[in-house]
Design goal:
Order of helices and strands: EEHEHEE
Number of helices: 2
Shape: globular
Strand order of the largest sheet: 1-2-3-5-4
Number of strands: 5
Strand content: 25-35%
Distance between the termini: 35 Å
Radius of gyration: 14 Å
Length: 103
């Protein structure tokens, strides 16, 4: 897990659990830790279209007593990678910087 904790942004940048450890509530523990470290129950997270179904299922499985929750807020085509859509939960992304021209 990688977090970004600035006055203007409370974001889970990366959240990954290796396949052999899935189903052991490690992702839930990561989310709880992130909320404590970031000081918010609604941290921003982005999920690429490639992993959207997996994360939506994970968000639905989070225990209600966990009190950390994720609500889809927006979608951004080609934001980080060409041909991919990024979905935001609990917030929005800033306007993208101009991409450098190739050659």
């Amino acid at each position: 897990m990688i977090l970004k904790n600035t006055p203007s942004e409370k974001k889970i940048c990366t959240l990954c659990v290796f396949d052999e450890y899935k189903g052991h509530k490690i992702g839930t523990q990561f989310v709880k830790l992130a909320a404590r470290r970031l000081g918010t129950q609604t941290p921003l997270i982005t999920v690429s279209s490639r992993h959207l179904k997996e994360f939506e299922a994970f968000f639905k499985r989070l225990p209600s007593r966990n009190q950390v929750h994720f609500v889809q807020a927006g979608s951004y085509e080609d934001y980080y990678r060409d041909g991919m859509t990024e979905y935001t939960f609990n917030g929005h992304l800033p306007a993208p910087l101009e991409k450098a021209a190739n050659g």
